[in-house]
Each structure stands twice: as C-alpha cells, then as structure tokens.
Write a structure and sequence with these properties.
alpha/beta; Aminopeptidase; five-stranded mixed β-sheet; four-stranded mixed β-sheet; 35% helix; 23% strand; binds zinc ion
Length: 271
C-alpha cells in the first residue's frame, strides 16, 4: 500500500505547480536495503521539495502515521523516513534453526536488542545476531539524522482498546515510564503524544492534548530512551489506527509548538 502511495505522488511530480490542495508539493523517494539473512529491510526517505518537519516511522504495519505525514508535508514540506519489511510489527529474519524476530523500536541499545530478540525468538541470540540488529539501528539513525535536526518526531499507531494513555497510569509495566500524565477526557484515550521535555508537556497540557512525559528512569531499548539519554528532544505522536485527521491535527500542534518554543535551544546532544 505504501509503495502505491509513493508511485502516486511521484506521478504528481510530473506536473509541478505552486502548492495548494489541488497542487500539492511533491517529493523524491530514496531507499536502501539492509540485508538480514532471508529478510531485506528497506529504509525509505521521502524528501519533499520544500523543507519542513522530519518524521520517523519504525513499525511497517502502522500506516495511518505515514499517510498523515504525507498529508502534512504535501502542504508545507518536510520529509519522512520509514522502514518497510512486509507490513508487520516485528522484523523476522534467518532460517528455520536460526530464525529471529525483534521489535524495531527496541533496537537502540545492546541490552534492549538482546531483550527483544529473546522475547520474540525461539532461539537464543548470540553476539553476531545482536550486532546485525544494532547495525540496522545505526543505519536508521544515520538516515534520519536527529543530531542535525535537533529532534525526533516519531509516528505510531495503536489498536482500539489495547493500549492507551490510561496504560501509563494502570499498566504495571508502563507505570514507572511516565513522570507526568495529562488526560483530556474529551479526547479518544488511544490518541496521545509522548515527550521527553517538560516544556513540551506543559505546552501540550495547556492545549488539552493527552500527553505523557517520559521518566528519566525509563530504561529499555526504545528510541524514546535513546533520545532522552542523548539529550535529543523527542516527540512520539501516537493515534489509533485509522484516526487520520486526528494524527494530522496533532502533527500540526507539534509543528506550532516547535515554532513557539524554539526546539533548537532544547537540543543538548552531540554537536
Ligand atoms: Zn509503532
């Protein structure tokens, strides 16, 4: 489905014109393949003709975010980096006796990579297995380049009722992950923004957006922990699968937030 979207927008590029709803900005897609045994992961970057926000989508079975990001970028510019590996949540590679699966949002440190491989695989990972997965994480970071952007914006989609902002208050596994949680009872509880900067939390709370401030005590292999550890401001905009208009609205809120606050001054990562 995502490939189809790509083809449609590249076709739109044949008719360049000022951007509007009828004449959207166009983009060029560039991708490279990362080869696991028996599995290729495509790292695809769609760069619009004008600069704007950059988005990162790690889970290939979550398409509402990709669609919302394209809707945002075709009006105002920007870019999208996404992983494509067969419309599944986990990446599975290898042969029968050396088959492994992992969650690509848990590959951003060694301990987390080991843990996610153990969780989803029958076989026990060896050092080489972990290195293979970690190399993909480095490729993703190189492509998205948060140190030049000064931030991460990731997009995720969840399923009705299985995970929500309330999970951060009630799920014992997530309870210690959040320092603060703001819930607007009028919003769908599956739609939320998770941030690592207290100033983002205050800003979004003041605008009645379901928001989670990640705790510095959160320690796993997820990208949000990588970001917090490396002092790179992180925003995850997560909505229920299919909530396209809400995803777009929350992206626009974050765009305005970055302009109002000046996200650049918050970046304290490597120069
Ligand atoms: Zn996801």
């Amino acid at each position: 489905m995502l490939r189809l979207i790509t083809a449609v927008f590249i076709a739109a590029g044949l008719f360049p014109a000022a951007h509007s709803k009828n004449n959207p900005l166009t983009y060029q897609a560039a991708s490279f393949s990362y080869y696991f045994p028996q599995k290729n992961v495509e790292v695809v970057k769609s760069a619009y003709e004008e600069p704007g926000l950059s988005f990162l989508v790690l889970h290939d079975d979550e398409n509402t975010g990709v669609e919302a990001a394209h809707d945002f970028c075709k009006a105002g510019g920007g870019s999208i980096v996404e992983l494509q590996y067969g419309e599944e949540r986990n990446i599975t590679f290898g042969y029968r006796k050396t088959k492994f699966s992992f969650d690509p949002n848990q590959m951003f440190n060694n301990a987390g990579t080991y843990k996610t491989l153990r969780k989803y695989s029958v076989n026990r990972p060896v050092a080489e297995t972990i290195s293979l997965v970690r190399a993909l994480a480095f490729e993703v970071l190189n492509t998205y380049n948060p140190d030049s952007l000064g931030y991460f914006i990731t997009l995720h989609n969840n399923t009705e009722g299985r995970f929500s902002i309330a999970s951060y208050q009630h799920d014992p596994l997530l309870k210690g992950v959040a320092d603060s949680v703001y819930i607007n009872q009028e919003m769908d509880e599956d739609d939320l923004i998770l941030v690592t900067e207290p100033v983002f939390f205050s800003y979004l709370k003041a605008r009645s957006i379901n928001t989670v401030l990640q705790s510095e005590n959160a320690k796993d292999g997820s990208l949000s922990v990588y970001a917090q550890t490396n002092r790179i401001p992180y925003v995850n905009i997560e909505v229920q699968d299919g909530h396209l208009q809400e995803h777009l609205r929350l992206i626009q809120v974050v765009d305005t937030m970055f302009k109002d606050i000046g996200h650049r001054q918050l970046y304290a990562g490597r120069p």
